[in-house]
Amino acid sequence: MLVSYKWLKKLVNGIDDIPVTDLAEKMSLSGIEIEGVTVPGEGLSKIVVGEVLTCEDVPDTHLHICQVDVGEEEPLQIVCGAPNVKAGIKAITALVGARIADNYKIKKGKIRGIVSLGMLCALDEIGIPESVNPMKHEEGIYILPEDAAIGDSVLPYLDLDDEIIEPDILANRADAMSMRGVAHEVAAIYGKTVNFEDKKLTEVDRKAADKIAVKVETSTEQVPTYKIRIIENVKIAPSPLWLQNTLMNAGIRPINNVVDVTNYVLMYYGQPLHAFDFDKFGADEILVRQAQDGEKIVTLDEQERELSREDIVITANGKPVALGGVMGGLDSEITEQTTNVALEAALFNGTSIRKTSHKFALRSESSSRFEKGINQGTVREALDFAAAMIQELAGGEVLSGVVESNDFMPEPQEVKTTLERINASLGTNLTVEKVLEILAQLGFETQENKGEFHIQIPSRRWDIKIEADIVEEIARIYGYDNLPSTLPAGATVGELTAMQKLRRKVRTNVEAAGLSEVIGYSLTSSEKAREFVNGQKPTTSLLLPMTEDRQTLRISQIPGLLDIINYNQNRKNADVAIYEIGNIFLASDSEDSRPLEIPHLAFAISGNVEDKTYNSAAVAVDFYHAKAIVEQLLAGYENLSFEADSDIKEMHPGRTARVLVGNRQVGFVGQVHPATAKAYDIKETYVASLDLEAMLELAPAQTVFVDIPKVQAVNRDIAVLVDRDKTHADIVEVITSSKVRSLSKVELFDIYQGDNLPEGKKSMAYSLTFQSRENTMTEEEIARAMAKITKNLVEKLNAEIR
């Protein structure tokens, strides 16, 4: 919803001098967040009211030479190609040097050799969006009212100098989806009073009930009330400029004086209305019912829609004329030929409207209000206001009486609370007088007796039902910033859980490695939810997702990280190193079918880990850089190992490894498959995923300090010839299992495959470090250790010592 500050100032007394930025801040702090404030005419300049004195055709062209009076000593000559330009009209005139839409500057120029000193403008040329523009560009320039003063800026005439407030209205504050609702809120915040316009409705002697009857076949739960007024002998015409401006600033396109009134009242009261061409009904009875399966209607957007039993329809002569609460039918729309109008106001079940709206992807201003709720106490008032307004603008005759299904009114609501309860909840020392003052600001009638409050809730605040709601209202108006800051009572000292400690440790380590934290979406597309999960299937999808890209709970964080890398690299940020700590969602055996939430760490690195300098080349990320981060995270875990893995089809089969602690897999690390990287449109990227629950379970109970040896270490090299299918991990496992206590380090320093080696063989050279903790090792001890290792390699791997 868009709120015109000009309009709001008319509805709330005493806020004329309050800057809109202060108002927006106050509303945000009191519970209705303001997303922004815009000025429609911002950036426009030197655009004035001009009167076309003469208009001459340019032979053999569609152009016209106009002499335009803009309030200067001499009229300006302006060449215009609009089909509707003529002498005697007043038009939007951009002078030389003016700025119009898209910051386009008007310059003195020649068109077909004819000097032109400005421009006569259509609405779109001064920035009015097509969605709210009452004219198409090809229809020509916009003609201003005859009383527009020549030479004045057009911005006030078109309300382009207005300030438009955009509140973010949540479902719990749907009362603010109307100008009257916003006015009550602002009045409460500032302690002001509201000033609502009244209209006198004059009825003729003819009775509406003699023309039409209303019958509701569905339940009162679906349609609590349905009301119709008949207005005869209207004259359809464009709305006055003030009404068109009001609607355009509210984001609604003006159509004609009858339809515009229904939209105006929608914005003013929050009550959806619909105007039918009464003569097109072909019947003297309106029937409101559930649609029949397969029944069809062509709505105002000229789309044929097939209905079902869950939809509410308004019918005449057995045929649907409107989709209740969502959109009217094309066959009964108001046109220039309309003379008699049936004006509808009703209440519809919000759940039913939401289902219909979602099914047809047909979200309207009316449906959004029925979904969230409307003021059930002002249905008749809004209907009468609209009828009087149509009578005023279209000259119609309002027939006597309202034809309705019932005289429904909501039950009055009363909420009780006490001063003690209010102060205990808020930590304040408010007095009875202060509470009564706040409740009066809110417009709540209150009776107080010895600190107990009996509060009558007006129908416009249907969100208030219980004591806690009243306490919240008092807190909002008193000011959240005025509430005292207090600490919880008691001597209990909180501490971090084991998982929280692990998460902090992991975060510290990966950030020390140069990675930046990101927060990805838990919901992803059904296709991406199947990636990097080795055949696992997604467990949970939303029935009514907002978008297809956010419908399935993730099993892996990596697709989200790759999307972030894509976003960065598309914006010339080629070197990306990011991580996320969050939950993945796996299948559960629980009765309620809720998925298991497993905390995981995932990271992704792409590009260079070191930039090029004057004396060194750039260093690109590789498998070993990613593996080193994993090793650092798992430092101290017993029996940590990496095992080649080719099962994950989205990972490079030769550069991916399972991460094992003992026999349990805690994750994987490796390069994203080039085909997957191409699909995500990213450069070579390395990723890892680790199960934090498994890491917590397998973490060493404690770290035992070991004295630094006082004796010197000894190094020996060994080269072995082994089959090509043997891995580094295989060889290290054999060496370390040789039960040589003094062996402290095994380091690979050379691999050779090629000439002068037997077929299917490779040579691998290792540096072995020996260090005794008691004495300096003798040559005999070193020789015995090397012999044990050599024997083990020969027996277990059929290795040849070189």
Jot down its keywords.
Phenylalanyl-tRNA Synthetase, Chain B, domain 1, OB fold (Dihydrolipoamide Acetyltransferase, E2P), Phenylalanyl-tRNA Synthetase, Chain B, domain 3, 6 domains, seven-stranded mixed β-sheet, 19 helices, 42 strands
Describe the protein's topology.
Blueprint: E1 3-4, H1 5-11, H2 20-29, E2 34-38, E3 45-57, E4 64-69, E5 76-80, E6 90-99, E7 109-111, E8 114-116, E9 118-121, E10 143-144, H3 154-157, E11 164-167, H4 179-190, E12 203-207, E13 213-216, E14 225-232, H5 241-249, H6 257-269, E15 273-277, E16 285-290, E17 296-298, E18 304-306, E19 312-316, E20 319-323, E21 327-328, E22 341-347, H7 350-359, H8 365-372, H9 379-394, E23 397-400, E24 403-404, E25 413-418, H10 419-426, H11 432-441, E26 445-449, E27 452-457, H12 467-478, H13 498-512, E28 516-517, E29 523-524, E30 552-553, H14 558-569, E31 576-586, E32 596-606, E33 608-610, E34 619-620, H15 623-633, E35 640-644, E36 651-661, E37 664-672, H16 674-679, E38 685-691, H17 692-698, E39 714-723, H18 728-736, E40 743-752, E41 761-770, H19 779-797, E42 800-801
Parallel strand pairs: 12-23, 13-16, 28-31
Antiparallel strand pairs: 1-11, 2-11, 3-4, 3-6, 4-5, 6-9, 6-10, 7-8, 14-22, 14-23, 14-24, 15-22, 16-19, 17-18, 19-20, 20-21, 25-27, 26-27, 29-30, 31-32, 32-38, 33-34, 35-36, 36-37, 37-38, 39-41, 39-42, 40-41
Helix pairs in contact: 5-6, 6-9, 7-8, 11-12, 18-19
Structural commentary:
Keywords: Aminoacyl-tRNA synthetase, ATP-binding, Cytoplasm, Ligase, Magnesium, Metal-binding, Nucleotide-binding, Protein biosynthesis, RNA-binding, tRNA-binding. Mg(2+) binds at residues 463, 469, 472-473. It comes from Lactococcus muris. Belongs to the phenylalanyl-tRNA synthetase beta subunit family. Type 1 subfamily. Its cofactor is Mg(2+). This protein has 802 residues and is an alpha+beta fold. The chain has six domains: 3-39 and 163-190, Phenylalanyl-tRNA Synthetase, Chain B, domain 1; 45-157, OB fold (Dihydrolipoamide Acetyltransferase, E2P); 203-404, Phenylalanyl-trna Synthetase, Chain B, domain 3 (Phenylalanyl-tRNA Synthetase, Chain B, domain 3); 413-482, Phenylalanyl-tRNA Synthetase, Chain B, domain 1; 498-698, BirA Bifunctional Protein, domain 2; 714-801, 2-Layer Sandwich (Alpha-Beta Plaits), CATH 3.30.70.380. The chain is built from 19 helices and 42 strands. The strands form eleven sheets. The protein has a seven-stranded mixed beta sheet with strand order 28-31-32-38-37-36-35, with helices on both faces. The protein is elongated and about 125 Å long. The N and C termini lie far apart (81 Å). The model has no long low-confidence stretch (mean pLDDT 92).
